[in-house]
Input
Amino acid sequence: MRAAGFRVSGRAARHPVRGVRQAVQSGRGLRSRRAVRSGIHPEARLDHPWAGNVVDLCPVGSLLSKDFLHKARAWELDKTASVCTGCSQGCNITLDTRDEVVVRVRPRPNLDINRYFICDHGRMHYRWMNRGDRIEAPLVRKDGALHATDWDEAFARVLAILRGASGKAVALVSPGASSEALAAAKRLLSGFTWTGAFQVVMGEEAPLAGVPNLALRAERAPNAKGAEQLGYTRDYAQALAAAKSAAVVLVLDEPDCPVETDGALIYAGTVLGEDAACRRADVVLPIANVAEEEGTFTNRDGRDQRYYQAKPAPGMAQPAAWVLGQLAQAMGLAEVQ
Ligand code: SF4
Output
């Protein structure tokens, strides 16, 4: 995100609201928008973690996002209410899609959570939603290799695994999965002695000056709180150790999970790398990502927020909550409270 070409003070450059006001005032002094664009002031770069908000705040449309430049006209976009997955703050966003591709993330006002702003990490954290290397069909292991199949055979294989196993089950889940998917995963394994865990990628905390309780949070996960409320723990190492001797291990959307087990391995995910440990799975279930499903995240303050489907899932992929819910229902298992 660059918003170069504006006469702004160093102080204003660190604050999006003051920054845009001063940039616009500077433009008036120079009398023309063209003059504003041509003035470069390298000593006052808008490069703090919330600088991209000047694009939304600029009242005359002079400040532009290079990332979005020439991608689409505003009237060509479909707009979907969503929740940012960049950290545990839970900022409300709009996903702009064109031809079923996410092309832009914009803040959606919520006075209790993000006011009118989003940070640059969240603003730019969307390209993964358009990944082309997705799992598009269920895979089952036959003669030592994974083969594409339909949902009926994949479900039958999972049900046979679950009905033929007993004892300990481990769920290694993503804190970016919806609460509905996490609840269904727990429900599916409720006939076992259950352990569920997640791990959170950590980063730098970056508050927005002047706005209480709004920061890019160190926890780069949208639903760690929701996972905890459902009984999943942060003791990922212990869960990985328990997985080795578990009868069944379910990995939910953790493509880099270093799982090892002597039991059956079920992987529900969006992607599967060439060297991924989940390549050893008995069954692979293709699931939708956050832009391709509806669901709920619980932010760090315990606020439940819905997000909505912005584009279709590729191939035969389905929302994880639906996949795991169907399996739990077929097992005759009750809803988890
Ligand atoms: S603060 Fe967190 S939730 Fe908000 S936009 Fe940034 S990364 Fe997304």
Q: What stands out?
A: Residues 16-30 form the longest helix (15 residues). The two ends are 43 Å apart (CA to CA).
